[in-house]
Amino acid sequence: MIIRALAKRQLHKFVRRRAMASARRSALAATRAPLMREWIYSMLYDPVDGYFSKHKAPVAPMTSPTPFPSLETRHDYLAYVAAQYATLETKWLTPSEIFSPYLGRAIANHIASLGVTRVVEIGSGTGTLARDIVDSLKAREYADRKFEFVSIEISKSLSERQAARMEGAGHADVYRSRHADALLESTWRQFADEQPTLIVGLEVLDNLPHDKVQVVDGVWHQTRVQVQQREAFGETLREALEPVTDDGPILRALDAYERVKSAPAQRTTRDAMFKWLLDATETPDPVWLPTGAEQLVRAVASTVPNHELLLGDFDFLPGVAIAGEFAPIVSSTVDGKARDRGELLSAPRGSVDIFFPTDFRLLAAMYEQVGAGGAGEIFKAHEFLGMVACDDVLTACTLADGSIPLLDDFANTSFARLSSTLHV
Question: Which of 21, 33, 64, 219 has its CA 20 to 30 A from that of 119?
Answer without folding.
Answer: 64
